[in-house]
Amino acid sequence: MIPLSADSLRGIVAGxxxxxxxxxxxxxxxxxxxxxxxxxxxxVDRVEKKEMVAQLHDIFSKTSVVVIxxxxxxxxxxxxxxxxxxxxxxAQVQVAKNRLARIALDGTSVASVGALMKGPTxxxxxxxxxxxxxxxxxxxxxFDKFVILGxxxxxxxxxxxxxxxxxxxxxxxxxxxxxxxxxVAPATKxxxxxxxxxxxxxxxxxxxxVKDAA
Length: 214
Fold this sequence. Notes:
The protein has 9 helices and 5 strands. By secondary structure, the chain is of the alpha+beta class. Strand 4 (147-153) and strand 5 form a beta hairpin.
């Protein structure tokens, strides 16, 4: 049996009313059936909302960073572009009702973002703490109707400048690549690094970072 969505059930209610009137069924019988269908619609609505809250709570509990942004004025095509760019960066984006999202935030470390959820907002998140900020900032440069409001990295609340700062940092993949470059360096260089003073060590690591960036 295929479960019906709330919208489908509402359509059934409306269609049933018209058919009953046309057939001349007593109003009392029509009202009884309508009431039963309305109860079923409300039940489906509650189930869907409960599932959405549970899904969002799981996301908020496990993610490293959350970005909140307004998207009013973006076209369907632009939203698709945003989703694509987020996915390529290793992040995800979702539009959810603010009331449900605030309920889902309860008991999570990123609960501070609830204060940002006013009007048409969306949620971007990633396990890499810089992936979602990078994708959001890049998209905002191309589409001025996409407005970053802030976010959170764990229990740390982030304003717009905080999101932009995270966006300038190397991703986890970039850091791993730099670390790998150090690990495959000649043994003599590794030995020198092991005995070098802290200041010299910092300069050598910085040199490698600059070399990789070039």
